[in-house]
Amino acid sequence: MEQSQNLSVQKPKVQSPRLRMLKTMLERLLQNKLAVFGGFVTFLLIFTAIFAPWLAPHDPTEQNYSAVLQAPSIEYWFGTDNLGRDIFSRVIYGAQVSLQAGLISVGIALIIGVPVGLISGYYRGFIDEYIIMRMTDAMLSIPALVLALALAAVLGAGLTNAMIAIGLVLTPNFVRLIRGEVLAHREKEYVEAGKASGISDFSIILKHILPNTIAPIMVQATLAIAAAIIVEASLSYLGLGTQPPNPSWGSMLATGQGYLDSAPWIALFPGALIFITVISINLFGDGIRDMLDPKMK
């Protein structure tokens, strides 16, 4: 007697186009070794900033006059400064300041730059050509550090005012970028079809044009974070950023400037971390740009 077996034929799973696209983009990013390294260092910085209270072995503001200008050792991994404060702990807490300055400054630039860029690119006219773009060109003609220094001097010393100044300095870059993206999309068929269907301009901008500008905004925002960290360190170095005794990589550089011969570690470690952090974020941003670039598909 023959036994009949019902063989169930399994259909191969078909991935959705969106899932395939995300998988391809992730594979492209992982193929870029420099971008992977930059991303690893960037997320290590974020981890360090979040868990600074548990990672720092000493209070970053505690002064110990019996341990002034001690060289790196088992107890003080990065040595101590002129007031006996542990440099390793101050560097860890300085990561909080740098990350905060980068994210909040770029957030301010996005909050102002995205709406202005969208409106400027979509509604071309007198306001766009002779007011918004002329103000943007004027701000871009001034070096970012000089403009941030002037704004911080007007607003006053302090991390909050420094972040506001940096955010205002970064805003013209986002305005020009988003305006260019909107100009490239406003004449396309799907926008013309939306207008013909009676869809409001607000819906066209928010639901159709804005999603197509997310990729360049992400890339620009990543690179702007690195620029914000440099400007914040520069303002703190000049006394207009983070105020003592709170640790900042820039203010630590300013302190170590007078001890380059006798205690070079005071300036060496914060300077090295500024360099490594900015390079890593730029490498990661370049990797994101290559991942999202349609020409790479």
From TrEMBL:
Q: PROSITE patterns recorded for this chain?
A: ABC_TM1 (PS50928)
Per the record's keyword annotation, is Transmembrane included, yes or no?
Answer: yes
Q: Where are the transmembrane segments?
A: 34-56, 103-123, 135-155, 265-285
Q: Which UniProt keywords apply?
A: Cell membrane, Membrane, Transmembrane, Transmembrane helix, Transport
Enumerate the spans annotated as ABC transmembrane type-1 domain: 95-285
What is the membrane topology listed in the Swiss-Prot or TrEMBL record? Multi-pass membrane protein
Tell me which Gene3D superfamilies the record gives: MetI-like
Protein name (database record):
ABC transporter permease
Record bears the keyword Transmembrane: yes
Q: Predominant location of this chain? A: membrane
* Subcellular compartments: Cell membrane
Which InterPro entries does its entry note?
BP-dependent_transpt_permease (IPR050366), MetI-like (IPR000515), MetI-like_sf (IPR035906), OppC_N (IPR025966)
- Pfam entry (one): OppC_N
Q: Which family does it belong to?
A: Belongs to the binding-protein-dependent transport system permease family.
